[in-house]
Design goal:
Number of strands: 12
CATH architecture of the largest domain: 3-Layer(aba) Sandwich
Strand content: 15-25%
Number of helices: 13
Distance between the termini: 49 Å
Low-confidence stretches: none
Number of domains: 2
Helix content: 25-40%
Oligomer: single chain
Shape: globular
C-alpha cells in the first residue's frame, strides 16, 4: 500500500455500531463492563479510547511499526521515554536539540541522577567515546531543530545495537512521509503530532512508535500510570490532518526548496540551513535516508545582527511570527529568544543557535506570495 493510501485508510475501520466512515469522537471517560474486569477492550479513557486507538493504528502503519502510543504533547511522549531510565543511567544526545527537550533533560531529569551528554552526533564516530556501562539511551533529532543537521540513523543504530543501547529518533521535522527511522534501525520514533501530522495548528499531541512488544507494554504502562493521555477530540483532529499529510508535505517541500534557494542568492543573507543543498553538511546522508528535504529552512542575516533579525521577523506580512511549525500557514521564529530560550547562551552559540538566526516553517501558500513577503521584509533590514 502506497503512502497516500495508508494515510487515508491504514489501521482505520468504519465504526462497528453505526457504519460511520469517519472515526467518531468517543467523548466518554468510562465504559460499561459486563462484570468486573470484563469489557470490550476499554475500561477508562486514560488508558485507551476508541478514537485514539484508530489514530495509533494509523500512525503505526505510517511509520512501518507494530505499535503506536499517543500522548497529550510531544513533551509527554519524550517524558515517557526518559521514564524508562533510572538514576545513574546515561543518555547521549545532540548538541542541537529542541529547547524544550534540553529543558526537560537538564532541569527535570538531571537532578534525579540521569546524566546527559550533549555531543556532535552528526559524525557517528564521536559517539563511542561517550559510551560506558551506564549508557542506556541515544536520543537524536534528524533533521535537527533549528539548524537542520542530519544524523545518520543507520550508522548510529549500528553503534547502539552493538552496545545494547536504545535508539530514539525525533522524526518531527521529517514526518513519516519523508523518513521512517524504524526501517533504519531505530527502536523508538517520536513525533510532536502538533506539527506536520496534525498540520493545521489546532491541536497539541505527541506520539511514540515502536516494533518491540515489551517496549510497547512498558511505554503504555507509563502512559496509563502517569496520565499524559490525549483527549478524543485531539485524536480526531490529528486523524483528520493525517489524511492530507502526503498532499501537504509535497507542497511544503516544493515551497521550502524555492525559499531556500531564494535566500541563498540574496545579498543580505549570511548562511542558509537546508539539507537539500549539495554543499550542505549531511546532504548525502539526507539523500540516502529521506525522500525529500522538507519545509523547514533556517538562515542568518549577514553580520549575525540581532536587531536586523528582529526587523525581519516583525515586518513579514504573510509569514506569522510564532512558535511551532508544520502547519499549513508559514511561520517565522527566532529560536534564541523563543523555542530555545531555555538553553544557556554559550550552549546556543556553540550549536549555531545565534542571535541572528531565524527559522522558517514554510507553509503551503502560493510561493510567489511567500517570496515577495520575504523580499519586502529584507528590504527593511
Amino acid at each position: 500500500m502506497k503512502f497516500g493510501t495508508k494515510a487515508l485508510h491504514a489501521g482505520i475501520e468504519p465504526d462497528p455500531t453505526t457504519g460511520a466512515v469517519m472515526t467518531p469522537i468517543y467523548q466518554t471517560s468510562t465504559f460499561v463492563q459486563e462484570y468486573p474486569g470484563k469489557h470490550k477492550g476499554y475500561a477508562y479513557a486514560r488508558g485507551k479510547n476508541p478514537t485514539r486507538t484508530q489514530l495509533e493504528n494509523n500512525l503505526a502503519a505510517l511509520e512501518n511499526g507494530n505499535h503506536a502510543i499517543c500522548f497529550s504533547s510531544g513533551m509527554g511522549a519524550i517524558d515517557a521515554v526518559i521514564k524508562l531510565l533510572k538514576p545513574g543511567d546515561e543518555v547521549i544526545t545532540g548538541d542541537d536539540i529542541y529547547g524544550g527537550s534540553y529543558r526537560m533533560f537538564s532541569k527535570i531529569y538531571e537532578p534525579f541522577g540521569i546524566k546527559f551528554h550533549y555531543i556532535n552526533l552528526y559524525d557517528a564516530s564521536n559517539i563511542e567515546k561517550y559510551i560506558n556501562s551506564n549508557t542506556k539511551l541515544i536520543w537524536a533529532e534528524t533533521p535537527t531543530n533549528p539548524t537542520l543537521k542530519i544524523v545518520d540513523i543507520e550508522a548510529v543504530s549500528a553503534i547502539a545495537k552493538a552496545n545494547h543501547i536504545t535508539l530514539a529518533i525525533d522524526n518531527t521535522f521529517a514526518s513519516p512521509y519523508l523518513q521512517n527511522p524504524l526501517d533504519l534501525g531505530a527502536d523508538i520514533v517520536m513525533h510532536s503530532a502538533t506539527k506536520y501530522l496534525g498540520g493545521h495548528s489546532d491541536v497539541v499531541m505527541g506520539a511514540l512508535v515502536v516494533n518491540d512488544d515489551e517496549l510497547y507494554q512498558r511505554l503504555h504502562f507509563i502512559l496509563n500510570s502517569c496520565g499524559a493521555n490525549p483527549g478524543p477530540m485531539d485524536s480526531f483532529l490529528v486523524l483528520r490532518g493525517i489524511k492530507t499529510l502526503h498532499l501537504r508535505m509535497k507542497a511544503h517541500c516544493e515551497n521550502g526548496e524555492k525559499v531556500a534557494h531564494f535566500l541563498k542568492n540574496h545579498p543580505k543573507i549570511g548562511h542558509v540551513y537546508w539539507p537539500g543543498f549539495e554543499d550542505a553538511n549531511g546532504h548525502q546522508i539526507a539523500k540516502k535516508q529521506m525522500r525529500g528535504f522538507g519545509g523547514m529552512v533556517s538562515f542568518t542575516l549577514k553580520g549575525d545582527d540581532f536587531d536586523a533579525a528582529m526587523r525581519f521577523a516583525c515586518n513579514v506580512k504573510v509569514f506569522t511570527l510564532a512558535e511551532s511549525l508544520g502547519g499549513v500557514e508559514s511561520l517565522v521564529n527566532h529560536p534564541a529568544s523563543m523555542t530555545h530560550a531555555s538553553i544557556p547562551k554559550a550552549e546556543k552559540d556553540k550549536a549555531g543557535v545565534v542571535d541572528g538566526l531565524l527559522r522558517l516553517s514554510v507553509g503551503v501558500e502560493d510561493i510567489e506570495d511567500l517570496i515577495l513577503d520575504i523580499d519586502q521584509a529584507l528590504d527593511l533590514v
